[in-house]
Design brief:
With 115 residues, this protein is mainly alpha-helical. The protein contains 6 helices and no strands. The chain is elongated, with a radius of gyration of 23 Å. The two termini are 38 Å apart.
Length: 115
């Protein structure tokens, strides 16, 4: 086994160093010995967003900049998914306080991630 480690380090010195640094280590704080209990828990977490319909704020929180947020507001207003008055209030907040005033950026896997 030791020979394999030495050879790996010779072939991939930077990768070997990265694998041995503390920031790359993950502590395991619990273990489920019952597979069914673990599956049930994981299933419950993913069902939390079943039938959830994102609103305008959810879409805006996925935007990287004000232009994208403005496009989302215009799209929802055009499709009459939000009222003209609500769109006006969203635009006012967007221009006055910026896109992050609606909340932190939601990543692509936001609804599938277990918290």
């Amino acid at each position: 086994m030791e020979f394999e480690k030495k050879r790996f380090k010779q072939m991939f010195p930077n990768l070997a160093d990265e694998m041995n640094t503390d920031p790359n280590r993950v502590a395991i704080s619990s273990v489920r010995s019952d597979v069914f209990a673990g599956e049930e828990r994981a299933s419950a977490l993913t069902k939390r967003f079943d039938n959830y319909i994102p609103d305008a704020i959810d879409y805006i929180r996925r935007c990287d900049n004000e232009e994208q947020a403005e496009e989302i507001i215009g799209f929802l207003e055009k499709r009459q998914e939000i009222s003209r008055d609500y769109a006006k209030r969203l635009r006012k907040q967007l221009r006055g306080k910026g896109v992050r005033s609606f909340g932190s950026k939601k990543q692509d896997d936001y609804y599938s991630r277990a918290e």
